[in-house]
Design goal:
single chain; 409 residues; mainly alpha; 17 helices; 79% helix; 0% strand; globular
Length: 409
Amino acid sequence: MKIGLNGQIFLGAALGIALGIGFAGLGPEAPLSRQGLYLLGLVGTLFVDLLKMVLVPLVFTSIAVGVANLRLHSQLHRVWIATLGFFVLSMALAILLGLGAAIWFEPGKGLNLELFQHASQGFSAKQMSFPEFIASFLHGLFLNPFAALAQANVLAIVVFALLLGIALVVGGDRYRNILLLLQEGLELMLRLVGWIMRLAPFGICALLAQLLATQNMALLSSLAQFVAVVIGTTLLHGFVVLPGLLFLATGVSPLKFFRGARAALLTAFATSSSSATLPVTLRCAEQHLHVKPSIAGFVIPLGATVNMDGTALYEAAAALFVANLAGIELDLAQQLIVCFTTMVAAMGAPGIPSAGMVTMVMVLQAVGLPAEAIAILLPVDRVLDTVRTMVNVEGDMVGCLIVQRFAEA
């Protein structure tokens, strides 16, 4: 009996976990581990690079075509309101959940910071005040589209594609040849995605094996309380809050949703990149969850850039974690500042592994916490990044279904 793609991905994930545990038991210096991790690194890098190869043209064509296909201005207006409303609501709930859990469990108290002094030696971040971050963020929205495409600046590409799609809507039949060209380009990119997805079981196997074999478990155990709080609250948001919103808004059961979304969630978990997972997310939304291409092509690429539930939750909890380490009590006003700056920082974080580490600096400085404390989070960030990226991608797919429900109402 032929095994489907989802089954192959599950087998690849199981094999990757087994290989990672085996290499970790042998030790990273063992000859078999070195050779095995080298080969796994080649396979995993190839898979991620292939996904990134189609990322820019896929984002550009899918958003432009998605907006252009919303011919009625009233429908476009409704989709915009539903999309942005859901993004703000889901991230606000994630931030409140992260803050509440950090306040309740107080992770980080009594932790010996000297254990992590060596982590700061290899880390440097550009420190920006909140006004500087806002100015930089807005400046990055409107760039030369050719430069943005060449530099794979996803946020600027999204903005230009949105404006182009709106212009195609306003122009109507006058620009039908351009719209036809973009539609054919989108179909071509999706065909390439189908070819790349045949390598997904091997890529996920390699990435998971690398992750488990190279993680410093001794250092991870020193941050066990913080890790448990973040993973627990992130999974609570992903398996309770988001499915609950979906069921209340559309009536779609969580079981049906996860059955259709599992390939994208596993890919997000393995790659820690919502941008690299975007082709798989589009495929799951359109083919398995039956979201209209015009809706999915608009909501998912936009969500992969600005809708970061897992990242927002993590940064809110991490800010209070650092405050506990520094012996600083944040008052209500400071906690509200954390909420606001965390949402902006999460929106500005690119969909690449550990991108939240950069915007985390801005969140810490907004409430007077030492930016150098970011180095404390580095030993466990790689593990936490897998879970929060999975929830980021889940939020995009949930948003697709909710937006489609309100657009058709």
